[in-house]
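Bench notes, afternoon.
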Amino acid sequence: MQLIDTHVHINFDTFKSELEAIRERWRATGVVRLVHSCVEPAEFAGIQAIANRFAEVSFAVGLHPLDAGKWTDETASQIRDLACSDSRVVAIGETGLDFYKADNREQQFKVFEAQLAIALQVEKPVIIHCRNAAAPMAEMLWDFWQTRGPVRGVMHCWGGTPAETLWFLDLGLYISFSGSVTFKNASQIQDSACMVFGDRLLIETDSPFLAPVPLRGNRNEPANIYYVAEQVAKLKQVSLESLARLTTDNACQFFDLSL
């Protein structure tokens, strides 16, 4: 059985001293590819170093909405240049809107739109962070699609309602579920997982965050994608092997990965 973890942050200090052991665990679980997300350009060199170290790691480049205040014209150039110069860059992001922890809405809109434009220009998909912002996110994406053109995207670590999920499916986006889909009180996330079309479904750990049941409360790591896959398979009423095959094929298609 092969699995792909489509969103990790293993460059964080919490992993620094034991990356080799963590890699052995993800390989033992069947994880054959990882997509490393990015919070800001200051991470570029460290993420590249991890990709140099582990051939199964591809990565994204972008600026997180909670770091929107760091955006400059140089930021745009940095993202665009690395996306064009390193073949391991498979997406722009993570970017998006977060109105849970910040209220600089206009700044976030501006930075998100700029990264959508880069994704369109470099012909890469975009990894979208959306927290407490589903309605303005859907409206902004619809407007961008109409005026600039469609961008392939994935709603990462999705936590929205089924109605919100449908908005983004109608826009042609993929939906990715993390360890939160295993939580006892996550009924709306589980309902959303049930309704996502098979060819738009992805899974992730968002390591080191959101460790799944039965490891909730611990530091998360890529090997734990197994529990996410197991729960989504149960919700979709398919075998774990079928779910693994489906989401692995989808990840390869979306991120243009080879196995």
